[in-house]
Design goal:
single chain, OB fold (Dihydrolipoamide Acetyltransferase, E2P), six-stranded mixed sheet, 9 helices, 23 strands, 25% helix, elongated, molybdenum, ABC_transporter-like_CS, AAA+_ATPase
Length: 348
């Protein structure tokens, strides 16, 4: 179902507009306090915005315009919210939890239970039907919660970090389950995980300080991020600057790279490159490559099997033995070499 939404909420500095085509899954990414939960609360009818309106298919979820005011209660909206924690009714069995939605929509007891059994089967939890939530593992309870959300037949599914509370064994199972249930279904998923965005979403939207800073096709945004936040998620360095004849002039120095799309001198652009493509030297090496940026080291931290060296917005991945050889420490001036072939430059 088509969904359009626009809302402002002054005391949270929230101002967001978005549109979704039927069957699309949108991933919402953003740092803590960006407004992701606020977005869901307004869509689900738990929070009133100051202005704006939203439509889901033919239904007006809310319209804050005084001349046209409309407000649907949460249970009338056709939305279902799946929280980080499963939030199942503790006194009901898994089957009764899942049957609750259809039952409260007026289905008979037996037909609600049939629907519940179907969704328990679809979420691979049929064998757990008689158990209470306290008798389920975290992963099992979250799968039952997915069944409960879907059994209500929502037109828009809201998933708030559904993998966050799961351990490393349960998360891949849940991801696979969501991949199958989200196909052809309108859904918005809040996530901090780039893998979820890539596997589950058609589009991503980056929310920062209550405003959208970037949105678009998932692969495109992660391959060519324009916001620092998306670049961080994609594991890329992102430096902004101005296009010049040799490449891009950044605050760290000139960077040559491969331009993508039409770029003219003077245009604002971004340069993206992997930290693994950056080498660190205390003294500029002889026969130095073209891209040599000078910066002061701000942090040194473990990263996977290696070491990540940061200098402001620049990150380089080096080996522990290189760190020992170089004797790097925060505060030291260093030279960061980046092969031009590893740098992509595109319009910002
Ligand atoms: N109940 C509340 N009353 C007033 N302000 C709130 C309330 N909840 C959140 N805020 C504020 O609204 C802004 C957005 O918060 P929100 O919880 O929507 O962010 P979020 O992106 O979901 O963050 P997180 O990733 O930490 O869950 C923040 O400035 C936050 O302090």
């Amino acid at each position: 179902m088509r969904f359009d939404f626009r809302a402002t909420l002054a005391d949270r500095d929230f101002d967001v507009a978005l549109e979704m085509e039927p069957g699309q899954t949108l991933a919402v990414l953003g740092p803590n306090g960006a407004g992701k939960s606020t977005l869901f609360a307004i869509i689900a009818g738990l929070l009133r915005p100051d202005s704006g309106q939203a439509h889901l298919g033919e239904r007006t979820l809310f319209d804050m315009d005084p001349s046209n005011r409309a407000w649907l209660a949460p249970h009338e909206r056709g939305t279902a919210l799946l929280a980080q924690e499963p939030l199942l009714f503790p006194h009901l069995s898994a089957l009764e939890n899942v049957a609750f939605g259809p039952r409260s929509k007026g289905s008979s007891v037996s037909s609600s239970r049939d629907t519940a059994r179907r969704w328990l089967a679809a979420t691979d939890t049929a064998a757990l039907a008689a158990r209470r939530p306290s008798e389920l593992s975290g992963g099992q309870a979250q799968r039952v919660a997915v069944a409960r959300a879907l059994a209500a037949g929502p037109d828009l599914l809201l998933l708030d970090e559904p993998m966050a509370a799961l351990d490393i064994h349960a998360a891949p199972l849940m991801r696979r389950l969501l991949k199958s249930v989200l196909a052809q279904r309108s859904a918005i998923i809040i996530t901090h995980d780039v893998l979820d965005a890539l596997m589950l979403a058609d589009r991503v939207m980056v929310l920062e300080d209550g405003h959208i800073t970037e949105s678009g096709n998932t692969r495109e945004v992660l391959n060519k991020p324009r916001s620092r936040f998306a670049a961080g998620l994609a594991g890329l360095n992102l430096l902004g600057g101005t296009v010049c004849a040799e490449g891009i002039e950044t605050s760290y120095g000139l960077l040559a790279g491969t331009p993508e799309g039409e770029l003219a001198p003077g245009d604002r652009a971004a340069a993206a490159f992997r930290p693994s493509a950056v080498s660190v030297y205390l003294d500029p090496p002889h026969g130095s490559p073209r891209n040599m940026l000078r910066a002061s080291i701000t942090e040194i931290e473990p990263h996977g099997d290696g070491i990540r060296v940061r200098a402001g917005d620049l990150a380089a991945d080096i080996t522990p033995s290189a760190l020992a050889d170089l004797g790097l420490a925060p505060g030291a001036e260093a030279h960061f070499a980046i092969k031009a072939t590893a740098v992509t430059i595109y319009g910002a």
